[in-house]
Amino acid sequence: MEPLIERAARDLLRSNHAIALTGAGISTESGIPDFRGPNGIWTKDPEAEKRAYQTYHKFLRDPKGFWEDMLNRPFLLSSLGNAKPNPGHYALAELEKMGILKSVLTQNVDGLHEKAGNKQLLEYHGSVFKLRCPSCGSRFKRDEYDLEKMMAEGQLPPLCKKCGSPVKDDAVHFNEPIPSDVAHESLVEAGKCDLMLICGTSAVVYPFAQLPRIARQRQVEMEQKGKSDLYFVKSEPATKIIEINAEPTPLTAEGISDYLIQGRTAEILPKIVGMVKELSR
Q1: pTM confidence score
Q2: Does the pLDDT of residue 200 top 80, yes or no?
Q3: Pick the CATH number of 35-76+130-169 from 3.30.70, 2.60.40, 3.30.1760, 3.30.1600
Q4: Distance CA 247, CA 260 (A)
Q5: Which of 17, 57, 89, 125 is catalytic?
Q6: Closest to 195 in 3D by CA, of 7, 29, 24, 26
Q7: Does the domain spanning 1-32+85-125+178-281 belong to CATH 3.40.50.1220?
């Protein structure tokens, strides 16, 4: 593992626009359960998964009923408020502060990257700590609305403070499109990065899983000298893709990633940061 950690550190130092993609694997190490694992939320409560497939349509049909359902059920991820970033989150925040990591794109809705200090953050599937207006795209902190009081006073649904349309939680539900601003910015980042860290994601949930594939498709032309001393132009991948995952993924099998560092993100990412510092001395 150590040679791969040094290789990743050297690749990061050589990069001009490095980004990180993160998934549930980086958050489970903060004690946050996933959805479909052995002890996942939906594994333990299959009915909750069935309801999840209907949630977005319920909002479109009946925003008031949507919010009544949301507030009358225990907050699915109520423990998130007490969850704390782990060393993997802090390592990515430190790489950003060092000017090496230009952005983090995350599937997670738990807000832990923000708590850890990442500023250039794209929450691809939203955040449970925010509300969003599907009509104009405005976002608000959840505590800007006293939702329980509004329900008690019959004032649901909450309305957008900019355009007056009903707002929903910011989390992206099944059958709901990725917000256009986040989708666009993510494609821009995938299209211009020259290094991509894949941290704790199985890369099977689309369209997020398409981002590494988009990055891999980009080619650059490199001038090389042949054995006969003649120069020729060869196309090479424009982006170095490094996986940091507990298990191989389809990205590993398909050759999308250049190499896999297998293990826990909370252990490996801080080691990479340490090696970056050592090589920078």
Answers
A1: 0.89
A2: yes
A3: 3.30.1600
A4: 9
A5: 125
A6: 7
A7: yes
